[in-house]
Amino acid sequence: MSERTLRDRTAVVGVGRTPYWRRGQSEPHTKFELACQAILAAVADAGLDVADVDGFALFSGGGGFDPALAAQVLGLREVRFTAGLTGGGGGAAGAVGLAAAAVHAGLADVVVSLMVLQQPAGGRFGSAFANKAGQYSAPPTPEKDFLAPSGLVGPGQMFAMLMRRHMHQYGTTRDHLAEVAISTRTNALNRPQALMRNPMTRDDYFAARMIADPFCLFDFCLECDGAVAVVTTTAERARDLRHPPAYVRATAMGGAGDWGPAITWMGMPEEIFASSGHRPVARDLWSRAGLGPQDVDVALLYDHFSGLVLLQLEDYGFCPIGESGPFVADGNIRYAGGSVPVNTHGGNLSEAYIIGFSHVMEAVEQLRGTAVNQVANAEVALVTGGPAPIPVSALVLAK
Amino acid sequence: MTRAQVPPQSLGSLNPDVFTEPFWRSVADHRLTCAQCASCGAFRMPPSAFCPRCHAQEVTWAELSGRGTVFSFTIARHALTPELAGCLPYVVAAIDLEGAPGARLISNVIDTEVEDVHIGMPVEIVWEDVDGSPVTLYRFRPVA
Do B75 and A210 touch (CB under 8 A)? Predict the structure, then answer.
């Protein structure tokens, strides 16, 4: 019987991006143009020709990116695979896993995954669940009737409810949230592409205005325009390309059935309400990778909101359930001296929010040894997508 | 201390399907009901096409007391959309419903100082008819 595994059969060989802008500042560039710029940069980084691209593995609707138009505009020879994860930002890491699966199955050879984001006025992600017109708003549905009257319109408010429960159950405090925000900001200070390059003190954090208690301004990620693309191909081909391969060691995606839509309903049972929803995904990931949290050199954890980094640290086993607050308070996630440096690029919180896809790029740079905040001898990188409604996802990249 | 404000009635929507409509008809009569599987007795909210436990479709409509407990909450202090600017701060809570284990409603906690809202707080439903509209809203207030 053949072994059912993706382990090290494929690799990420190219990464590329546009500049990052504050929300709405990227015009007159078009969104499609930004996506194509990131693709061209990623392909060039790999040492490939864009005409070699024959597949697209996306998430969150590709951010609106259309492979059909790209095939025409970029002059692709032939497209052999186009698919995406369902759901939203939870699929960020899993999109690369999908690319790996397609390549390993022989459905395509050079697969692009990407995210592009452009948020003009009226098109803000932060109020994605409001009943309103616009690109990032949900249409009226029977389920929305149960949400809309309460004024629960944004993911930040929704995740604040999970965080509040965690604080109640385990004694987690705003100081623990502050540690995530400050540690992440510290990592952004020396990165030219980071949008937030001024230091944040504890006083700065506590002086920030409250948005959705217990989340203040600095617990929220940035609102950005920009694009990031990565290229995945076979391990054999990867070895002949420009950079050392970042092998896809393992991927996992999904979530427990009773996690379901999670934040848009809040019906999760008590045992997993105050979690990141990643526990079943983490179990699959470590099993498939033949690794565990102790093997991770650098963790790129989806940080749309500071507190959800804490919950992921628990669900991936970096610390016991309920103990992420004291774990970060001990300095464990810091780049300088931490046992598992987290979001060495400044994350969604302080570098840029491209729905988590900059995390994949940072993982690849860490494994190549070219990161700005390089973790010495980094050999194993964890990347996650979500917390979000099903699916959330994860990826282990390795040297 | 800051009084909890009430989001505008204009946020209310009514787009029922065949599975949610009986719930909203009860709401219009100021009665809180919950879909209960006619086969295995499991409660589910929102009302949906299948029982997630046994997959039966038939439901009975359990009449609830209207009391509940705050399971978790957030205090919204920033208006994410313009129509929320006039009602800050407001409290959004997930409320466990008495008499329907496993069923939660998302609603506002009103008639309180926001600082007094806490997990485990006993609350009861308050009905709010909307003039000139088929929508009836519900919120929750602390049990006196």
Answer: yes
Q: Which distant-in-sequence residues (6+ apart) come within 8 Å of A278 by Cβ?
A: A255, A311, A312, A315, A316, A384, A386, A387, A392, A394
pLDDT tens digits, B65-108: 999 999 999 999 999 999 999 999 999 999 999 999 999 999 99
Mutate to test the interface with A, among B20, B50, B106 (most CBs of A within 10 A): B106
- Predicted complex ipTM: 0.97
Residue B71, in any domain of the structure: yes
A chain contacts of residue B19, beta-carbon cutoff 8 Å: 142
Q: Is residue A384 in a domain?
A: yes
pLDDT at A127 exceeding the cut of 90: no
- Nearest C-alpha neighbor of A301 from the set A332, A257, A347, A339: A347
Q: Do residues A149 and B11 lie in contact, with contact meaning Cβ atoms separated by under 8 Å?
A: yes
CATH number, domain at A242?
Answer: 3.40.47.10
Question: Hey, which residues does B108 pair with through a beta bridge?
Answer: B92
- Beta strand segments in A126-172, E: none
| Helices then strands, each counted (H, E), chain A | 12, 12
Task: Indicate the number of domains in chain B.
Answer: 1
Q: Which of left, alpha, beta for A247 (phi over 0: left; psi -120 to 50: alpha)? A: beta
> Nearest Cα to A90, choosing from A343, A359, A317?
A359
How large is the average pLDDT for residues B11-23?
94
